[in-house]
């Protein structure tokens, strides 16, 4: 939600009250699904990025939005940051069938609703859409295969100074952009947002992505999620 705030500001988040609640429950149910997958299958960072890739598939900017925004920032780093303050209790029971039905059902319903509600016409060729569907299916099949093949044990949370800095400064940057930059919004992809704030948020996200790559190259181990 803070990431959304950085691009839209308070006005863009609350002008249409229903948009705020749609977004809140979207992130709530997505995080519920991810948390349950972590508890059940002890998924790796790569598998979490694949979950985010399948969830946030965007035909226009597939690699950047699905891998950098959803995968790295809003999934891996977000769950690291959450566990930094409140470590996971592995003994808690996972989400039940009703929780999965509500979570997946809401996400699918919202996607269909926004598709028909949006006044922005779909762009792209039939070949592009077809390839997007194929990539999505391949990612989903590999995700299911890798989860069932590699069984992991629960892990102890490992703190990282670099990841702490990336998390802390992400909060500061997004708060600053949402409060002082995204004060004047225009219609961007069917919703209110600040073009300058969006560009600056994207730039910072790349900084975070490069920092996480540096962590992997230096430590050669998983980020604790």
State the oligomer: single chain
How many DSSP helices?
8
Q: Structural class per helix/strand content?
A: mainly alpha
Question: Strand portion, in percent?
Answer: under 5%
Number of strands: 2
N- to C-terminal separation? 19 Å
Radius of gyration: 18 Å
User: Main beta sheet: strand number and arrangement?
Assistant: 2 strands, antiparallel
Reading side by side through the largest sheet, how are the strands ordered? 1-2
Stretches where pLDDT falls below 50 for ≥5 residues? none
CA-based shape? globular
Portion of residues within helices: over 70%
Number of domains: 1
Order of helices and strands: HHHHHHHEEH
Overall mean pLDDT: 83
In terms of topology, how is this protein built?
Elements: H1 2-14, H2 17-41, H3 45-55, H4 62-85, H5 97-117, H6 126-149, H7 161-181, E1 186-188, E2 191-193, H8 195-219
Antiparallel strand pairs: 1-2
Helix pairs in contact: 1-7, 1-8, 2-5, 3-4, 3-6, 4-7, 4-8, 7-8
Describe the structure.
With 225 residues, the protein is mainly α. It has one domain (2-219). 73% of the residues lie in helices and 3% in strands. Strand 1 and strand 2 form a beta hairpin. Helix 1 packs parallel to helix 7 and helix 3 (45-55) crosses helix 4 (62-85). The radius of gyration is 18 Å and the shape is globular. It starts with a helix and ends in a 6-residue tail after the last helix.
